[in-house]
Amino acid sequence: MKPNTVPDTVQAIIAQAGGLGLSGAFVYVGAHETTYRCAEVHGEYRSSYLSRLVSQHGIGSVDFDVGVKFKVNGKRGRDWAMIITYEPNDTYTVWLVEGHQNRKPDSMVLACHRDVYCDMLRWVIERTYDDAIREHNEGWIPLS
User: Fold this and answer.
1) Which residues are CB-neighbours of 96 under 8 A, at least 6 positions away?
2) Overall domain count for the chain
3) The pairing of beta strand 109-116 with beta strand 79-86
4) Cα–Cα distances in Å, from 70 out to 43, 54, 58, 67, 81?
5) Is the residue at 140 inside a domain?
6) Is 102 or 89 the better-scoring residue by pLDDT?
7) Of 20, 26, 74, 107, which is least packed with CB atoms within 10 Å of its CB?
8) How many CB atoms lie within 10 A of CB 87?
9) Could you tell me the residue range of the domain that residue 44 belongs to?
10) 143 falls within a domain
11) Taking the model in full, what pTM does it have?
């Protein structure tokens, strides 16, 4: 991501997660394949609705208007993704979801933390990841 092409709101999300440097949450969780959604490039832009879990043709996904999505190092053979959504009430929601062939809405969400304030965002991202590694991957972080 080039900072001058990324919307201001997305840049703020990244900064509040500790940035892209070694001490930030993105490096901590092994973030890769980062994408974002935001309708406005300049200024603060809030979502028009709360992020939510939806099902289309039996396949689950997280529907959001403003946020950042990236894959994280998770369980082998499963695609773990973290989604940080900027909500209409000026808080964040941190989702950790697992992608697999039979991804059903009731089984894909590993964690969801709502009403996260900006000063807690980095901590919630790191804690969510740590808890999921401990619970779903026997404490082991895959390196590839």
Assistant:
1) 72, 80, 81, 82, 109, 110, 111, 112, 128, 129, 132
2) 1
3) unpaired
4) 23, 19, 23, 10, 6
5) no
6) 89
7) 107
8) 20
9) 8-132
10) no
11) 0.89
Q: What is the pLDDT of residue 143?
A: 66
Q: Tell me: the pLDDT tens digits for 31-59?
A: 999 999 998 899 889 999 999 998 877 77
d(CA 82, CA 74): 10
Mean pLDDT of 91-107: 81
User: Is position 2 within any domain?
Assistant: no
Mean pLDDT of the 101-110 span: 73
Distance of alpha carbon 7 from alpha carbon 42, whole angstroms: 6
Listing DSSP states for 39-71 in one string gives S-SSS----SS--EEEEETTEEEEE-SSEEEEE
Is the pLDDT reported for residue 76 higher than 90? Answer: no
